[in-house]
Amino acid sequence: MTSDIMANSPTAAESVSGGVTRFSLRGGWTLAASRGLERQAQSLVEKGRKAESVVVDLSGIDRLDTAGALLVNRAREALERAGATVAIEGVRAEHRILLDETTFSLVSTPAKRTLLIVDLLVDVGLSLVDGLHEFYRGTGFLGEFVAALGRTVLSPRLFRGTSLIYQMEVFGLRSIPIILLINIAVGAIVAQQGIFQLMRFGATSYSVDLIGILVLRELGVLLTSIMIAGRCGSAITAELGSMKMREEVDALRVMGLSPIEVLVVPRVLALVFSLPLLTFIADMAALFGGLLVSWSYAGISPPAFLSLLQEAIGVNTFMVGIIKAPFMALVIGLISTQDGLATMGSAESLGRQVTAAVVKGIFMVIIVDGCFAMFFATISY
Amino acid sequence: MNAASETTRPIPEVLISVRGLIVEFGAHRVMNGLDLDIYRGEVLGFVGGSGQGKSVLMRTILGLVQKREGAIRLFGHDRDGLPPLELRRLEQRWGVLFQNGALFSSLTVKQNIQMPMRESRDLSQRFMDDLAMLKLKLVGLPPDSAEKLPSELSGGMIKRAALARALALDPELVFLDEPTSGLDPIGAADFDELIATLQKTLGLTVFMVTHDLDSLYSVCDRVAALAEGKVIGEGSLEDLLASDQPWLRAYFHGTRGSRLIGARKGKTDGQAPPQ
Ligand SMILES: Nc1ncnc2c1ncn2[C@@H]1O[C@H](COP(=O)(O)OP(=O)(O)O)[C@@H](O)[C@H]1O
Ligand SMILES: [Mg+2]
User: Fold this and answer.
1) pLDDT tens track for B98-155
2) A37: domain CATH number?
């Protein structure tokens, strides 16, 4: 029985007598009819527009819901605007309530009309201002972080050791396998390319210099930082972002705790401690990968590789890479925590923040690396 | 109690019927052979202690939680025997107000209300805008809330907006999970009144999980009480008040309950509706 009603489509039969146009509505005037309902209401207006006097007879209707009632009301308004007098007849008590409830005037929102070029300029201006704001907030955040760090140093009671160790396990220890894997691969690729290109000049043994310097100065720390920005930066942003969304951050604040101290400091410090260690592991893994390829591809035995390496690099080569690591960690940590805490209420905002944190993190890691390259070149280290 | 249920009393049509329902989470049995009927046109209040499984029952009827055993009939069809397409059609005949609103956080209130229309009806954008504004008016939200995001609304407004979304397709049946919890007494009373009005104007059937004794008094035609995975009492509020069941006695005749009942009795003495 109910499915019959659902299938019952709305109709409006028209009959004209003595200047009065009479519409007898039948069927189910409900939202179940989708577009059919709208079309029927539209036809009422079109057919009745010319008439002086229109009668809408609802007595034959099976079902009426708010959508149907709204359309009947809207049709009446449109006909009255066109100059007809409209009477609604045969209304049952329950339909009367619906018709009354659905009478309301639409507050029309004026449509915005703008020029494309103006929109474009506005967009460019807005994103520039956004960028500056971002930089301003970032600087402020760095200041807050340093202040919180200072407070923690002054009163070690505030120091959250457990949290720090836990975060170091998550960000550091758990990252070791993937760091090992990609760095062995990259070391091997650099060695293979170096040997292949230098073979033509009969300078195969210089490939060891290439591997040592490239990996220790640049690749080890850069790849590790990018990996960590992707792996841990996103996790930090997502975690802090969902805490922000569920008012957990506000809960901390009202307990008199600073979210920077409780959430940001342990995470950033964990990254700052973990990244140099991971960089060391990455360096060793890449050298190992290079050693393997040199041995199998160019026939440089491991003892020969090691003595060539010893001549090629000094402690400073190694230190250049390691010194950069804590700064990379600071950049990644600050960007991801700040973006996490900047999440607004919606799920979409969280997704946007995570993406932004990873992209900005990787971008800034490369910029910082460039700055260090210039710095070390200037002081000829 | 109200005119609609008076006239349908001879053959009350059962919209939802639950028989011998068993629901378990691991070893934890939440529903233990529960029976319940929801009749057309009534407002059924569903009470029970926190964690007794009121939400779980609602979610099981809606198909969000798997049952272990038992039968659920929706609008006269056995849930298990329904082909997926038919089930989707039936699902459009009810609306749900979740305990914390569950508005889509990245959509505005208007888009939230239009979501069900957009997904299962073919309507022009203009008409959908018109309908959305109508629903906002029905649930008593100001027109300017249409363009707001859920995060910009207060708790009471979120419940109203979620109710507007539940009503988007003009359902016959609405499930409300603690609609007045977290609202101030005036807001809660307003919401009760709103539900009563909507129920009368739209001819709705309402299944309302609630802790609010005021709601039970003011809007519910019938009350069912849940404890230990079963419905331990069912009937008019007066029947439950007179019951000797220990949990019901504790619930209705505890300090808060009896204070309220005392106050109501004083107010309505002599003109209480005949039951
Ligand atoms: N998804 C789930 N997994 C495991 N246990 C659940 C789940 N959902 C609910 N429960 C348990 O079922 C019981 C009833 O929960 P609920 O229906 O939310 O209570 P309430 O009556 O307060 O609405 C609780 O003991 C809860 O721990
Ligand atoms: Mg619940």
Assistant:
1) 888 888 887 899 999 998 888 778 888 888 898 999 989 888 888 889 999 888 888 8
2) 3.30.750.24
DSSP letter at A110 equals P
CA distance A357 to chain B (A): 19
CA distance B205 to B42: 5
In this predicted model, what pLDDT tens digit does every residue of A12-48 receive, in sequence order?
888 888 778 888 888 888 888 888 888 888 888 888 8
Same domain, A227 and A306: yes
Of all protein residues, the one whose alpha carbon is nearest to atom 2 of ligand 1 is: B25
Q: Where are the domains of chain B?
A: 100-170
CB nearest to B143's CB, from A74, A107, A346: A107
CA separation for the pair A368, A332 (Å, rounded)? 11
Q: Give the ipTM of the model, two decimals please.
A: 0.72
Predicted pLDDT of residue B4:
46
Domain-located, residue A164:
yes
Nearest CB among B105, B150, B170 relative to A66 is that of B170
Whole-number Å distance between alpha carbons of B142 and A251 = 30
- The answer to whether residue A151 is domain-embedded is no
Query: Residue A318 is part of which domain span?
Result: 158-378
For residue A3, what pLDDT is reported?
44
- Cα Rg, chain B, nearest whole Å: 19
Kindly state whether residue A254 falls inside one of the protein's structural domains. yes
**Which residues from chain B sit within 8 angstroms of residue A45, using beta carbons?**
none
Reference B182, options B263, B95, B101, B264; nearest CA is B101
Residues in contact with A255: Cβ distance below 8 Å, sequence separation at least 6, in sequence order: none
Residue with tokens 């009163």: A155
